[in-house]
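ok here's Elongation factor Ts, mitochondrial:
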Amino acid sequence: MSIKITAKYVKELRMKTGAGMMDCKKALEESDGNIKEAINNLRKKGLASATKKAHRITAEGLIQSYIHAGSKIGVMLEINCETDFVARRSEFHELARNIAMQIAACPTVEYVNIEDIPSEVINIEKKIEAGKKDLNDKPLDIRNKIIEGRIQKRLEELSLMNQVFIRDSEIKIHDLINHNISLLGENIKIRRFCRFVLGESLDKKSNSFVQEV
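and the structure:
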């Protein structure tokens, strides 16, 4: 009888190997839930080394653009890898397009990682949460824990790497990146992106041409 592969098992294997979520899940399924056997299988396939590549310099890559249906939303993305060889691979181009589509679908995302969020933004969020009336009657220690949890949730909403992948709800963008690091054998970094929304920040006129005349 096969063991049910839970998210907890997948997370444990990922923490031990640095391999992507998808690779960990597959390895656990193939080993019938045996962690040690799954680790050995990942090592044989060369997939247990994503974290070891994290500090390699990424000076190549590409600029990916994406225009959402209807031409109302556009994205420009710079994604980097180590060599021009990988930058030309179809898998890398597919990854870049998937991430650009993710950004288009996530209006709350403003930063690549939580670590990129400026301290002044975090402080503003803390003041907002601390001032909410539903916390007034809470004991101080519970109040602080609630605020901390809400802040963490808000920071994750702002971070691209913490988003659930729109094409696979079982993984997040950082898992997708790690999977492709293992697949392509090079470090991969999302350097920057910009999301455009048609008419954003513009005051739209309510008066018609006839009224103006």
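+1. Residues 118-157 form one domain.
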